[in-house]
Design a protein that fits this description.
- It contains 18 helices and 37 strands.
- It is an alpha+beta fold and about 650 residues long.
- Strands 1, 2, 3, 4, 5, 12, 16, 17 and 34 form a nine-stranded mixed β-sheet that branches. Strands 8-9-10-11-18-15-14-13 form an eight-stranded antiparallel β-sheet, covered by helices on one side.
- Strand 22 and strand 23 form a beta hairpin.
């Protein structure tokens, strides 16, 4: 029995199937993402989205959909499905009898006496999508018709019928190619078996993306159908369709599909699902190795997200130190200016220290890590010592973050251009990360460098923070730390940012205080789907990530949970309580197994509602969520071994 289970009887129910999304990536920024019945519900959905260098490396949707039609005795049975407002046409999902996702998406249709299978692969490192069709059973002469829907637009935009689109085609080996607009790569559509192409360009108008409509965004699009392919299929025969930004040999498509299929990781248990999800998040583009924050709409190579997710996706996932170092070095090279000169992510440069510390903990070689990254980490610390545009170092050693109208922390949602949670002043996590970075730099430079003005300044800042941190942040009435402190005093909201006082290698508070923090977080923020961003006791608490954009942006950091915060929580608990926390940690990560067959199949979502039934939302495969669950599972294994 397959590990990932789907209710076969419910596949024809759109309430069931449209909430489940498949994802295939090429590990180079490109992706295929749609629902398990092939109906696109987001503008980000489509079969072939790829980054285009001449457009700044941003991703563009070339092929939105491909309708399959089976013909027998002159009668067509269209397997496609599109939404036109309240109408779905055609309704090919009614023929679906099975869906599998191990190791890649497989959809099976039954139409009368015909049994038809579709298998989807995205070629690793290439802008090529492969679909293998197999006619498993048929009792009459059968013809397959394939009808492509072309978009040629940014994944963040929508297109409308227009006279500028070049509807002409170019014959190619085993197919045809198109380029709707100047500057785009040609889209090559080729088939392993000889087919007839009928050119009949037409715009299919007013296709609606239900998720965009529900979220209050523009949701209607026109797509160009340039024509269709037709070819006969024999019982038991397989053919392979290729959509690619480069021409390929159509004669090799079958063999290519077989090779690619063998490279896919199995999704036959929880750990392998996480490993496969992690692998989808890498983006090897040219000389750069980066991480995609989440599919399908998040950026690639984000500074904050890479620093947080990198250890989990590499070190704790499969011990890949080489990939860790390559991605970290590329991040430093690519983001050198925001790391050293200023950024609207006030704490992100300080997270680089935490990433290197995890490398040290994993390898046990502090000297080598400091040799590779110490110079840059010192420069980061010096940038805060000397002053940055977004943050000032005060005489008490604490960092004051302020940029009017800008949410400088990771809680960076905006409504009408105004931050929902600006958090200006002394942010608790920023100052914990700052203290940790100063202490690490001081220790490493003392051990492997030489004492001087830098170590003297670090020692002075360290002493100043230790003298004031508790008094500035401790909220006696609540027995936890303030979320931030501004000129009016403490913000006493119970939020998860204080976890960094417990999770980092160096803490500015005692173990007794750390225990109080962890108990407060456990009482009010811990759920079976991550850590709430605000206590339910707070009048601003919003548990549901639903409604229009204002309602969603209000909820995102005011109650909804973030799975990735489990990493900091579990780290703090294991540091303080040791192997006795194993059982609780196991319960916290095991809860996500229940959701591997919803939202993003075999992946972990970005956000969950703060209250049961904990519905997943946001990116269907989140780098932060996947990486930190992998990290917690690694800590569980370590602590189990230590307790033997």
């Amino acid at each position: 029995m397959a590990y990932l289970q789907f209710n076969k009887a419910e596949l024809v129910n759109l309430e069931y199937s449209l909430k489940r999304e498949l994802l295939a990536t090429n590990r180079a920024g490109g992706y295929c993402n749609t629902t398990i019945v092939g109906c696109n519900t987001r503008k980000y959905h489509g079969l072939l989205a790829v980054p285009i260098d001449r457009f700044g490396g941003h991703r563009y949707m070339l092929l939105s959909a491909l309708d399959e039609t089976l013909l027998q005795h002159g009668m067509p049975f269209n397997l496609g499905i599109h939404c036109y407002g309240d109408i779905y046409e055609p309704r090919g999902h009614k023929y679906i009898v099975d869906f599998e996702m191990d190791p890649y998406p497989v959809i099976t249709y039954r139409v009368g006496g015909m049994l038809f299978k579709k298998e989807i692969l995205f070629v690793v490192g290439s802008g090529q999508l492969l679909i293998r069709y197999t006619l498993l059973d048929a009792h009459s002469h059968t013809v397959l018709r394939l009808k492509p829907y072309l978009a040629f637009r940014s994944i963040h935009a929508l297109t409308v019928a227009n006279p500028d689109a070049d509807t002409h085609y170019r014959p190619e080996e085993g197919g045809v190619s198109f380029c709707l607009y100047k500057g785009f790569p040609r889209l090559h559509l080729q088939i392993s078996k000889k087919s007839d192409y009928v050119h009949a360009p037409d715009w299919y108008k007013n296709i609606v993306y239900k998720e965009e409509y529900r979220r209050g965004f523009d949701c209607q699009e026109d797509l160009l159908v340039p024509g269709f392919f037709e070819l006969p299929l024999e019982k038991g025969e397989s053919i392979v369709f290729s959509a690619s930004t480069e021409p390929v040999s159509h004669r090799n498509l079958k063999a290519q599909f077989t090779r690619e299929a063998k490279r896919r990781m199995p999704r036959d248990n929880y750990d392998n699902c996480l490993k496969a999800a992690a692998e989808q998040l890498f983006a090897e583009e040219g000389p750069l190795s980066r991480i995609c924050t989440g599919f399908s709409w998040h950026e690639i190579g984000g500074m904050r997200e890479t620093c947080i997710a990198l250890p989990g996706l590499t070190l704790y996932n499969n011990g890949d130190v080489k990939r860790f170092e390559k991605i970290l070095s590329d991040l430093i090279s690519e983001q050198k200016k925001p790391f050293l000169k200023g950024s609207d992510q006030v704490e992100s440069p300080l997270r680089l220290t935490e990433a290197v510390q995890q490398l040290v903990q994993f390898t046990g070689d502090a000297e080598d890590a400091w040799k590779k990254y110490g110079k840059f980490l010192k420069q980061v610390v010096e940038s805060y010592l000397n002053g940055r545009p977004e943050v000032k170092l005060h005489d008490n050693g604490l960092l004051w973050a302020e940029k009017p109208g800008v949410a400088l922390s990771w809680m960076n949602a905006y409504i009408d251009g105004k931050p929902v949670t600006e958090r200006r002043g002394y942010q608790v996590e920023t100052n914990c990360l700052w203290y940790n970075a100063v202490c690490f730099a001081l220790e490493m430079e003392t051990r492997f460098g030489k004492a001087g003005s830098f170590t003297k300044r670090c020692a002075d800042v360290k002493a100043a923070i230790e003298a004031c941190f508790y008094d500035v942040f401790w909220v006696e009435a609540r027995h936890h730390l303030a979320d931030y402190v501004d000129e009016t005093g403490q913000n006493v909201f119970t939020r998860p940012n204080q976890l960094y006082a417990c999770s980092l290698p160096y803490s500015p508070v005692s173990e007794e205080v750390q225990a109080d923090i962890l108990h407060a977080v456990e009482r009010e923020l811990v759920t079976t789907r991550g850590i709430r961003t605000l206590s339910p006791k707070n009048p601003l608490y919003r548990s549901r990530y639903d409604g229009n954009q204002i309602e969603r942006d209000t909820a995102t950091h005011n109650g909804c949970t973030r799975p990735w915060l489990l990493g900091a929580y579990a780290t703090g608990c294991f540091k303080l309580f040791g192997p006795s926390f194993v059982r609780k940690a196991q319960e916290l990560v095991d809860g996500f197994q229940e959701d591997l067959n919803i939202h993003g199949i075999a992946a972990v979502a970005e956000i969950y509602d703060g209250d049961p039934p904990y519905i997943p939302h946001g990116a269907i495969n989140s780098a932060l969520s996947v990486s930190e669950i992998i990290r917690v599972k690694y800590m569980i294994k370590q602590n189990k071994e230590e307790s033997l």
